[in-house]
Specification:
Elements lengths: L1 E4 L14 E4 L8 E7 L2 E7 L3 E2 L3 E4 L2 E3 L2 E4 L12 E4 L6 H16 L10 H14 L1 E2 L6 E2 L4 E2 L8 E3 L6 H15 L2 H17 L10 E3 L4 E2 L3 E2 H20 L5 H17 L9 E2 L5 E3 L5 H15 L2 H19 L16 H16 L3 H19 L14 H4 L8 E2 L7 E2 L5 H12 L2 H13 L41 E2 L1 H11 L4 H7 L2
Parallel strand pairs: 2-8
Antiparallel strand pairs: 1-9, 3-4, 5-8, 6-7, 10-11, 12-21, 13-14, 14-15, 16-17, 17-18, 19-20
Helix pairs in contact: 1-10, 3-4, 3-5, 3-14, 5-6, 5-7, 6-7, 7-8, 7-9, 8-9, 9-10, 10-12, 12-13
Length: 517
């Protein structure tokens, strides 16, 4: 059973209270939908205006008193509201999610957002991040992209390889773009990052030093399969690119091959990888939710080094994904700071199956393509097919942000962001393979909508520096930590947002990698 509002959403009112009974200061479009326990029965509940009971969920793991809103109506005035309730039968929950997403897409018919920001213009502006965030006076050079303040965007002493830092992927992007555009400054900085990490960026065992706080002289001792994988992914792109230019890096090749060999040691009998571990291979977090992040560099390592061990390991990861995530429709704990269902787990699962589909043929390829498609619907279910209303006076309302095409994060972190990376490529590939126009059309919605908050001169969209794309975009009364609906949290990590949008705007990377010689 599903319920959907069919009204036009365009109104929101500010309020002076966030708990108890609240009379709104104006008109709103915001209602509520949720589940209730009524005498032991699960009930799908909906209504207008909004209410949250028995508690209000205001930030991660934080409950507040309930809130119930009322809109003022004068005598004789009325409001007409329309909900559509539908029922459907499905063989399993995956089919239910697919049908519900198609129903939502077909009902809301999200269109690309009109924008003057072309992919070329986006990259030109975001390249300022590669210039201003570059830090070159520590043992590893890096782009400062984590633990930063929106108000200043001042660089910090924290170097992070993957996750929210993504410094090596940004270095590859800067190198490729710099050589395309004759930007010697970008090429030099990117080269120094790769050189410094090759010399000083590894632990005793040979894993990446994932997070380093230089002023505190602290190196995070616990490794994560996700950051390690994202670092290896970036370096393999770098090595492949360099090889096409006739430039060789034997020491980097040795480093990456050593890491992939250690991945084989870490992989469990069921094909999964532990989420967190130490240099001595002892396990800190056994959860397999981050497993698909390892699939990508393993498949790439197979192609680059022509080592079938990596391909077999990659196939085993997807066997695990099929058994524990995809067949169970339970996409969990891919992100490092939450133990819950999250967008990134389904997105990574779809991408992992897509990578294996690119390097296999026949029935085997069809198997991986079908898995990529099934997981893609769960990833899509996190992305908005409608526009959330904002009030004037809320920054996002003043900027007239359209939320269609933006994705929610997880059931613990209820904000929207631009995490997409290669997912648009997956959607476009699936669209062609299965003649499913919705995929390609929605990929275009995502691509155009995520350009809206680009900080440019004289229109910085609430960020202190040009090109430092915002991260925690708060679109509900959820409050990540500061500022609340219609604003950003005061601390952000533009390292990953720039990397994500750059990959979105660099289509076909994986296919090009596997086609190169």
């Amino acid at each position: 059973m599903a319920v959907i509002r069919l009204d036009k959403f365009g109104k929101e009112a500010l309020t002076t209270h966030k708990e108890g009974e609240v009379i709104l200061s104006g008109e709103t479009s915001i209602g509520y939908t949720g589940f209730e326990n009524v005498s032991g029965e699960t009930v799908l509940s909906f209504g207008f205006p909004y209410k949250e009971m028995p508690k209000t969920y205001i930030r991660k793991l934080t409950l507040a008193p309930p809130v119930e809103a009322f809109q003022f109506l004068r005598k004789g005035e009325s409001i007409a509201l329309t909900w559509e309730i539908s029922t459907r039968e499905a063989s399993d929950f995956s089919e239910c999610v697919q049908c519900t997403w198609e129903y939502s897409y077909d009902t809301n018919r999200p269109q690309p957002v009109e924008t003057s920001y072309t992919p070329e213009r986006m990259k030109e502006v975001m390249s300022n991040f590669f210039v201003q965030s570059y830090v070159g006076d520590y043992p590893t050079h890096y782009y400062s992209g984590v633990e930063m303040r929106i108000a200043t965007c001042e660089s910090t002493d924290v170097a992070e390889v993957g996750f929210v830092g993504r410094t090596l992927l940004n270095a590859f992007n800067a190198l490729e773009y710099g050589e395309q555009r004759g930007r010697t400054d970008l090429v030099a900085n990117a080269g120094s990052i790769f050189d410094s990490y090759q010399k000083n960026g590894f632990s005793t065992a040979g894993f990446f030093n994932e997070v380093v706080h230089y002023k505190r002289r602290f190196v995070e001792p616990v490794h994560s399969i996700r950051r390690q994988s994202e670092g290896a992914y970036a370096v393999l792109h770098y090595l492949d690119y360099e090889r096409t230019k006739g430039r060789k890096h034997p020491e980097w090749e040795k480093r990456v091959k050593g890491m992939l060999d250690m991945f084989l040691r870490l992989q469990k009998a069921d094909g999964s990888f532990p989420r967190k571990f130490r240099d001595d291979f002892s396990i800190v977090d056994v959860s397999g939710g981050s497993t698909p992040s390892a699939t990508l560099p393993l498949v790439m390592g197979y192609k680059y080094f022509k080592d079938k061990r990596y391909l077999e390991a990659a196939k085993r990861t997807v066997d695990y994904l099929d058994k524990e995530l995809i067949s169970k429709a339970d996409y969990f704990s891919s992100t490092l700071d939450a133990n819950c269902e999250d967008k990134e787990a389904s997105l990574y699962a779809s991408s992992a199956a897509y990578y294996l589909a690119l390097v296999t043929k026949g029935a085997e390829q069809e198997y991986y393509a079908a898995l990529a498609k099934k997981a893609a619907y769960f990833a899509l279910s996190w992305y908005y097919t409608w526009d959330v209303p904002f009030a004037r006076g809320q920054m996002l309302g003043d900027l007239e942000l359209k939320t269609r095409g933006w994705g929610n994060v997880s059931v613990e972190n209820n904000h929207i962001d631009v995490f997409v990376f290669e997912f648009a490529d997956v959607l476009n590939w699936l669209s062609k393979r299965y003649a499913e126009k919705r995929f390609a059309n929605f990929a275009q919605v995502i691509s155009t909508s995520m350009r809206q908050l680009l900080p440019v001169e004289r229109h910085l969209c609430g960020v202190a520096k040009v090109g430092y794309y915002p991260e925690v975009v708060q679109h509900t009364n959820w409050d990540y930590g500061k500022n609340g609906k219609g604003f950003y949290n005061d601390i952000f990590a533009p390292g990953w947002t720039v990397a994500s949008l750059w990959e979105l705007l660099s289509p076909g990377r994986a296919e090009k990698f596997f086609c190169s010689e």
